[in-house]
# Entry
Amino acid sequence: MLEDTSLRMTRQRRVILEELRAVTSHPTADEMYEMVRRRLPKVSLGTVYRNLEILAESGVVLKIDVGGTKKRFDGNVAVHHHLRCVACGRVDDVELDPGVDLEALAAARTDYDILRHRLEFVGVCPACKAKEG
Ligand SMILES: [Zn+2]
Ligand SMILES: [Zn+2]
# Structure
């Protein structure tokens, strides 16, 4: 895995990173392409895909795999969890009480060395709730 500091920051890569960090919407690669294209009109979809993968592999951004068909990206690499709306598919952040260490709990109750965990909340977002009346 590459270190943050050894990752070469091309202009394209920097713009992708800036755009991703500016939103909390967890965009897909296609959505990132639309955002980046406003600043770099000549950029290709393939370039955006490739750079997102490199940024994710190096740990500078997160590639999140919430239920849904497409991979989404997150500029926030701090520990947090995700909520997904079953109606429109939007993904939001939720911060839980950091005092609850789920991995320590799981380790204490099993003989596993816990490496990581995945936790996803599923629900109906405020906008969809309002639409439903
Ligand atoms: Zn919704
Ligand atoms: Zn997030």
User: Anything to note?
Assistant: The beta strands are 62-64, 72-74, 81-85, 91-94, 120-123.
